[in-house]
């Protein structure tokens, strides 16, 4: 296992536990989509793994080593990248400066060069628009800059928290395609996605998180077709308008 | 019943019930030379669930901000019933019966969930806001809404401790406390889990049957096509199409600018 969470318990400040004894494994090259109700603990889990939140109990193993409570900058260097929810570009800096920030604190110049090269190759926009202030890009373009920045360390695990939130349908599809490409190139992906149909279609595996524990896991397509999962987590869904010729796409990406 | 004109001096939208329609006429707004809205005109008919769709950066949120007093448009006018909105402050717009939510939620993070529910309906200074306590029908209504959106158990938590999705639900619930005539929602489905989207869809229908008018910005096309009519499409700050979901979906200009293939 690349990441192994064992009986993980985490929460904020003096508040109650959000994660309540969660067990989850992500293998090398895996693509796992986390779905579940609002407030189930999905973002909290990503924060615990990337070191932004120190677990209260339990452990997180990364390649067999206990990393619980390790500093986020060290974990980033270790190869765990986290693209948080919402916008996290530096709006006044240029697109290329934003990508360079992904190399902040890295000492291995050769690694940095390789990482930047790869980021530029995967996300041509960071080269095409390199002199533009990142804040002037559209939401979908900014999300690509954020992912490119996260890829500079050539992480083995890329975690994305609702990357398609607020994106127009086409931009959302593009971002999902990019995740699939990165995964095919060998990066393990842990994706939190409220657009559950789209997320589960793109991922290899799905996990349903509820009340701070994993309720159910399975292949993406298994979960998509499970009647109980449909009823409890996918809904009739607002994406399922059968009248659209390419209903599958409408269901997912829009 | 929408009339979209994308040419200067185009036909004015017909007004069916002037007392409660939201009429947006030739609106223009730019930011440092970048045009966000340019001769944008359309109408939200009283009693409709109107959708506003379009690419990122097409001017949808700017339009919301112009209607609700957060921005001053450079040209054009916004009428709600008999009132001219374009020069009003946000709080004055609220008193006319227009409430809204934001794409990025704006709640009071250090106040409790329940306190956030009361803010929209008390028209007094913040210092005296809670001296009267939260009780009676007000409390019942707040509890009912929180219950419906599944966040009642968080009533005494600081709102800032809620997850992103829960904060959105809180903002929506708080906007409903004021029982507005027109509720403007900026990406209500974004970040909500699909089951909650279904509940929200049903609830909007119910409120609409009771007379509430909706103007909804949303990228979730399933949600839009199922719930809204008419659908208005804006691109580069002006209306490029409007009509029933089926008409809009079949419109080549919309496919080209937004939906793609």
List the helices and strands and how they pair.
The complex is a heterodimer of chains A (254) and B (261).
Chain A: E1 3-11, E2 17-26, E3 31-35, H1 42-50, E4 57-62, E5 65-66, H2 72-78, E6 80-83, H3 95-100, H4 109-122, H5 125-128, H6 139-150, E7 157-161, H7 169-184, E8 188-192, H8 196-202, E9 205-210, E10 213-219, H9 220-225, H10 227-234, H11 247-253
Parallel strand pairs in A: 3-8, 3-9, 6-7, 7-8
Antiparallel strand pairs in A: 1-2, 1-4, 4-5, 9-10
Helix pairs in contact in A: 6-7, 8-11
Chain B: E1 22-31, E2 34-44, E3 49-53, H1 60-67, E4 75-80, E5 83-84, H2 90-95, E6 98-100, H3 113-118, H4 136-148, H5 164-177, E7 182-186, H6 194-209, E8 213-217, H7 221-227, E9 231-235, E10 238-243, H8 245-249, H9 252-259
Parallel strand pairs in B: 3-8, 3-9, 6-7, 7-8
Antiparallel strand pairs in B: 1-2, 1-4, 4-5, 9-10
Helix pairs in contact in B: 4-5
Based on the model shown, name its key terms:
heterodimer, A: alpha/beta, six-stranded mixed β-sheet, disordered C terminus, B: 261 residues, alpha/beta, four-stranded antiparallel β-sheet, 10 strands
Describe what you observe in this structure.
- The complex is a heterodimer of chains A (254) and B (261).
- With 254 residues, chain A is of the alpha/beta class.
- Chain A is built from eleven helices and ten strands.
- In chain A, β9 and β10 form a beta hairpin.
- The C terminus of chain A is likely disordered.
- In chain B, α6 links the parallel β7 and β8.
- Chain B is globular and about 50 Å long.
- In chain B, 52% of the residues are buried.
- Chain B is of the alpha/beta class and 261 residues long.
- The chains are: A alpha/beta (254), B alpha/beta (261).
- Chains A and B meet through α7 and α10 of A and α5, α6 and α7 of B.
């Amino acid at each position: 296992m690349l990441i192994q969470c064992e009986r993980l318990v985490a929460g904020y400040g003096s508040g109650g536990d959000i994660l309540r004894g969660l067990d989850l494994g992500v293998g090398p090259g895996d693509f796992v989509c986390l779905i579940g109700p609002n407030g189930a603990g999905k973002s909290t889990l990503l924060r615990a793994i990337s070191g932004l939140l120190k677990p209260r109990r339990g452990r997180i193993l990364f390649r067999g080593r206990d990393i619980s409570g390790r500093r986020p900058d060290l974990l980033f260097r270790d190869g765990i990248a986290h693209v948080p929810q919402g916008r996290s570009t530096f709006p006044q800096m240029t697109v290329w400066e934003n990508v360079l920030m992904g190399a902040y604190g890295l000492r291995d110049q050769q690694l940095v060069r390789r990482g930047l090269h790869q980021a530029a190759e995967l996300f041509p926009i960071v080269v095409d628009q390199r002199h533009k202030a990142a804040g002037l890009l559209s939401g979908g373009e900014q999300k690509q800059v954020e992912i490119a920045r996260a890829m500079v360390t050539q992480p083995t695990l890329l975690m994305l928290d609702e990357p398609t939130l607020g994106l127009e349908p086409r931009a959302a599809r593009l971002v999902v395609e990019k995740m699939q490409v990165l995964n095919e190139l060998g990066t393990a992906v842990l994706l939190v996605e409220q657009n559950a149909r789209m997320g589960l279609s793109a991922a290899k595996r799905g996990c349903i998180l509820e009340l701070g524990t994993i309720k159910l896991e399975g292949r993406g397509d298994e979960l998509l077709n499970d009647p109980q999962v449909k009823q409890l987590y996918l809904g009739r869904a607002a994406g399922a308008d059968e009248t659209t010729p390419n209903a599958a796409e409408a269901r997912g990406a829009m | 019943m929408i009339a979209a004109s994308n040419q200067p001096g185009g036909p004015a939208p017909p007004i069916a019930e002037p007392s409660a329609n939201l009429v947006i006429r030739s609106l223009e707004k730019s930011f440092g030379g970048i045009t966000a809205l340019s001769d944008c005109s359309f109408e939200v008919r009283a009693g409709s669930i109107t959708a506003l769709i379009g690419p990122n950066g097409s001017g949808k949120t700017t339009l919301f901000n112009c209607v609700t007093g957060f921005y001053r448009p450079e040209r054009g006018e916004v009428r709600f019933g008999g009132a001219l909105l374009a020069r009003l402050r946000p709080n004055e717009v609220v008193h006319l019966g227009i409430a809204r939510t934001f794409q990025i939620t704006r709640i009071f993070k250090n106040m409790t969930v329940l306190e956030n529910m009361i803010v929209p309906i008390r028209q007094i200074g913040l210092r005296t806001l809670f001296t009267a306590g939260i009780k009676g029908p007000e409390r019942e209504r707040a509890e009912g809404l929180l219950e419906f959106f599944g966040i009642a158990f968080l009533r005494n938590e600081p709102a800032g401790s809620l997850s992103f999705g829960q904060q959105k639900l809180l903002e929506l619930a708080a906007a409903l406390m004021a029982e507005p005539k027109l509720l403007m929602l900026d990406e209500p489905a974004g970040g909500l889990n699909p089951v909650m989207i279904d509940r929200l869809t049903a609830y909007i229908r119910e409120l609409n049957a009771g007379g509430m008018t909706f103007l909804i910005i949303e990228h979730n096309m399933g949600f839009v096509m199922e719930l809204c009519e008419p659908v208005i499409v804006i691109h580069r700050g002006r209306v490029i199409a409007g009509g029933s979901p089926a008409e809009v979906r079949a419109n080549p200009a919309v496919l080209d600018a937004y939906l793609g293939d």
